[in-house]
Design goal:
Blueprint (H helix, E strand, L loop, with lengths): L13 H16 L11 E6 L5 H12 L3 E5 L13 H9 L4 E6 L4 H7 L5 E6 L5 H15 L6 E5 L6 H9 L6 E5 L8 H10 L2 E5 L12 E4 L10 H7 L18 E3 L20 H20 L3
Parallel strand pairs: 1-2, 1-3, 3-4, 5-6, 5-8, 6-7, 8-9
The structure holds phosphoric acid mono(formamide)ester.
Amino acid sequence: MMNRSIVSIADYSREQIERLLERTAEFEREPNHPHLLEGRVVATLFFEPSTRTRLSFETAANRLGARVIGFTDPKVTSSSKGETLKDTIKMVSNYADVIIMRHRLEGAALYASEVTDVPIINAGDGSNLHPSQTMLDLYSIWKTQGRLDDLNIFMVGDLKYGRTVHSLLMSMRRYNPTFHFVAPKELEMPEEYKLYCRKEGIRYVEERVFTEESIADADILYMTRVQRERFTDLMEYERVKDTYILRADMLGRCRENMRILHPLPRVNEIEQDVDDSPHAYYFQQAQNGLYAREALICQALGIE
Ligand code: CP
């Protein structure tokens, strides 16, 4: 079935990405358009916990005049009685005009998009992809750097399970980036993404060190949380969880326009004193999520 689902933005052209960025900027200038989605129903199905993604999608829907239905805990739905994802999606398709879904299984959003004509927006599927996060990340990079081309992007922390870094890496392939993958051995960027970089001609280096000197030529420092919930062996989590911690005193040599991004939530990987640095951008980045998600809901509904 063909529909306007947003499962991944890895294959979007420069024109498609740039149009979404421009729309996001329009929503930043004026977030309230209470008649744009009047009469529409947006469903948010969160099979995994979320603060930013769900609340910003729901705020986006509200600011555009839609009604919102959904759940934040699958235990209160009939999936706890054994209902399949397919049947849940088919049921919600009877009620909503667009379905925003987060699920623990990789490929769940793609599967959902194949069993309904109602557009699905992937709000994160396991360790795979998180396209709406990627749109707000691209917008944050574009806004702070004035371009997406030719940037030196450091990705730090959990590169194995981090769907935000996987998604961002793929969506930047048309912008000639140089990636620095900074991770402990246990959380290295998976081979499939390194293979993707080689195939697409994307430069990358893998590093273990994380010091004031090593980050001095970064344009973007993309920090990530080590995700306890993805580990089967909690001893391994304890071993690696605090490998990289960014402190304010590490920012003395960095480029003036360098910005620190983080999809959030953070745990220990950015010390609180970094929040006061002019390089810290993660709270504004999360705010950009509202505008990017207004643009994405409109895109999924085919609203120009
Ligand atoms: N960045 C992000 O996905 O945050 P939430 O898990 O709070 O939605």
